[in-house]
Amino acid sequence: MTNGSCLCGDVAWEISTPFTWMTHCHCGMCRKAHGTAFGTFVGTSASGLHWLRGRAGVVHWESSPGNARPFCGRCGSRVPSEWRGEVAIAAGVLEGELGVRPGAHIFTGSKAPWWEIAGDLPRALGSPSASAELAAMRATEPAPGSVRGACACGAVAYQVDAPLAGEIWCCHCTRCQKAHAAAHAANAFVPKEQFRWLRGAERIRSYKVPEAQRYTQFCCEVCGAGVPAVRAERPLVVIPAGTFEDDPGIRPGRHIFVSSKAAWDEICDAVPQYAEYAPSIHSRSRRPRPRPRAEAPVARVLRSRCAWQGNRARHISPAARTHFSELEAREHERCGIRTGCR
After folding, report:
1. DSSP letters of 287-328?
2. Quick check: 184 and 337 in contact, CB under 8 A?
3. Which residues of 261-288 are buried (b: 16+ CB within 10 A; e: fewer)?
4. d(CA 40, CA 17)
5. What does the pLDDT read at residue 13?
């Protein structure tokens, strides 16, 4: 018997039949729906699905004709989808040993430009081609000098002034697994001064985990996809990297909370791994101290280190990039949004 539930716990179910397959899907829709590099799904007979509670609170969004992507209407987590006698479930919302391991990467021709597939699993390019699919599902128009993104249905869209600095963090904590219904979250961090909404900010829902200090999930009320987290008290916007419609120009720089990763989640790349936070974060003293100049707002620090070239383009020196990463890490420790389990 396998149990599963959404992040808030309102929707729960159990599976009594064995899973017959597991696969990683890199298609553009799965990336947006889960807000990360890929979705991981398992399948079994629909006869084995037993809803325990909350089925009435499930919202069904049709991503393509006849293909619904159901999610919890309160927290946005993906829940089981029944189709033609079979049930497909995003593995991140399941608990315990599943008795199956990933068998392939599919739609790799559509993978995110910021993600490199590692390991020896078979790969299937899928159809249509990556460029054709991306053009067909874009919810925003390309804009020179900026990186744009949107939720799965396109109701919520945003823009970030390029270039982005720092790195993408992949968090394997159990909350991120549930929130994204995936192996891990993949988040980028940008100063508020570089970010703006294009549309749909009023359609965002938020759910804070009651026992957490700060952990909050932000999602589109229409499709349930994760969207950027903008908070008045925080200088950085946290962006689910799977929602980018343009190459952000930054790449994954660390896996965190790998001590909490799912048994089926095998990390095959060479990106540094940390059991919880990176040492540069949790080794810092928590004693009160005067705020040093190095902790000035990120945007001001970047402006002081950047040489502008024209209206948009700018070059950030290696020293400034290192400085930004330290600020990013320290801010992440304080806010714990989406990747901190706090």
Report:
1. S--PPPGGGS-HHHHHHHHEEEETTTEEEE-HHHHHHHHHHH
2. no
3. bbebbebeeebebbeebbeebeeeeeee
4. 19
5. 98
Cβ atoms of 40 and 23 closer than 8 Å: yes
- Rounded mean pLDDT for each run of 10 residues along the chain, 342 residues in total: 98 98 96 98 98 97 88 98 94 98 96 97 78 70 97 98 97 98 98 98 98 96 98 95 98 98 98 87 38 39 33 39 48 42 48
Q: What span, in angstroms and rounded, lies between the C-alpha atoms of 115 and 110? A: 11
- Give how far Cα 154 sits from Cα of 1, 101, 191, Å: 37, 32, 23
In angstroms, the CA 114 to CA 49 distance is 36
Angle of CA points 163, 167, 168, to nearest 5°: 115
Cα separation of 74 and 295, whole Å? 36
Quote the Cα angle for 14-97-29, to 5°: 70
Question: How are the residues of the chain apportioned to helix, strand and coil, as percentages rounded to the nearest 5?
Answer: 25, 30, 45
238 DSSP β-pair partners: 189, 229
Q: Note the maximum CA span of the chain.
A: 62
Q: What is the pLDDT of residue 137?
A: 76
> DSSP per residue over 100-160, as a string?
-----EE-GGG--TT----SS--EE--SS-HHHHHHHH--S---TTEEEEE-SSSSSEEEE
- pLDDT score, position 244: 98
Distances (CA, A) of 119 to 11, 123, 181, 265: 34, 10, 22, 12
Q: Amino acid identity, residue 62?
A: E
Q: Contact at 8 Å (CB) between 218 and 231?
A: no
Closest CA to 192 of 157, 154, 148, 159: 159
Q: Which of 121, 96, 127, 176 is nearest to 27 (CA)?
A: 127
